[in-house]
Amino acid sequence: MTSVEMDLGKYLARIGFTGPAEPSLEVMRTLHTCHLLSVPFEDLTVHSGGRVQLDLPLLYDKIVNHRRGGFCYENNSLFRWLLTELGFQVTILSGQVKNRFTGCYGPPFDHFILLVELEGRRWLCDVGFGVPGFSVPLSLDTEDPQEQSHRVYRIRKDLEMHFVEWQEEENRGVDGDWKEIYKFTLKRRSKEDFTEMCQYHQTSPSSIFFCKSLCTVLRPGGRLTYIGHRLITITFPTEENRHVVETITELKDEEIPGVLKEKFGIVLNSTLIAKDEKITPPLITY
What we know:
Arylamine N-acetyltransferase fold
């Protein structure tokens, strides 16, 4: 493996962060949002002849030097390195995502998330989730609703399991329905614990990352998503228009590389095979 210098300042520049980088709540919140606005959540390596590997220098080279993105194991692994280098106390946790296509939870080690302890409080950080991920860390010390922009989130505890849930704009309020995003425990994990599931997500017909080529990034006031042969532009509600506006553009194969470069800043070294297949429900449910 070629040696890669991991430069903290270059990483901060990659995500557009300026100002004092100290272990404070304000800095953590800003870093979290900057990362989501700059680094896509994507699985394009899987669909362009490559394999995702979790060595930190490789992740740094991909995300910082080559201005790519990644899925949770990649984005959150590198974000953990950043927070740790800045002096934050970070613990790796394992989550299980509720698949919005199959309605099933993924296996253990399905999702890589971060717990940050700061000034006697606990925060859940996650820059490795697409829709409907949260833009700033969520407090782990309350089950009360936590409002962010047009969405409301909460972390509900049931015995040893915690559930991250959200309400859509038109569904908010005391009587609204909560939708589960993923569940997790507070058991400390290591990066190596996720190796097997990282391979699973690149080879299993029950994984969204194997079945669909995708790339999504948060934008001020909205979100931009590529999936298969579609480009989806989401505009969040405003005071003038209180509804989410979705625009879908159909893409031809030859248009996709240009869209990835222009809209996401991504240039692939190999040809992308666009994919948008139905996900097979897992034989074992969790």
